[in-house]
What we know:
Elements (H helix, E strand, L loop, with lengths): L1 E3 L2 E8 L7 E4 L5 E6 L4 H10 L1 H18 L9 E4 L2 E8 L7 E5 L2 E5 L4 H31 L6 E4 L6 E3 L5 E4 L7 H13 L8 H10 L3 H11 L6
Parallel strand pairs: 2-4, 6-8, 9-11
Antiparallel strand pairs: 1-2, 3-4, 5-6, 7-8, 10-11
Helix pairs in contact: 3-4, 4-5, 4-6
This protein binds zinc ion (ZN).
Zinc ion binds next to loops.
Amino acid sequence: MQYYENISYTLKKSRKRRKTISLQIGDKSELVVAAPHFTPISEINRFVQEKQNWISKAIQKHKERVIKNKAKEYITGEYFFYLGESYPLEVFFEPLENQGVVLWNNNFYLNAQEDKGLRKHYFVLWYKKKAHKYISERVDFYSRMLKLQPGNLRITSAEGRWGSCSEDNNLAFSFKLMMAKPEVIDYVVVHELMHIQEKNHSAGFWHLVESAMPQYKLQRRWLKDNNSKFTL
Ligand SMILES: [Zn+2]
């Protein structure tokens, strides 16, 4: 750790062909400076000093993002995504009424006792139920339009992937997809349907996706950028 004025940073000296000094924000919202191996420390400090404004903004932004992405507590005031919008949660416990989640009037309501595992379980159930109905309708719509006949449709709890298409054309989609915008869900549906025709990610495959959905790159980008918000 190096210190200069009020700014502390971790210095990475590179032996590779790096020609310029660069700044990054690390996982713990700390500043990481990468510099060519023989850069004098005074030059690095001057660079850091000049970029002070950028640095404090970037660190602030990173901290906010960490707060947003932290694991859910399932408490009143937290926000949950559905179809690309986020809605605040209100939690209560009424043992004589139905337990579980409802979305009503732009609010999530959760009737459950104070048990994080159970509360999460109710949310998963809710998303899965929505996903079964919503995604099967979109699969029907696009399979008719594209004249592609899929096998079974499954909704999974997959964390790492949004959708998949098996050798025998069974489709699976993560319930988490219900947190994304409708256009984005459509993109994932079209993507998996096109795997009925092409079981790879060749240029030919992407041509097929593009022919059905000219804007698909925007949706793919959106998924990458927003992925980390969809925690449960
Ligand atoms: Zn694919």
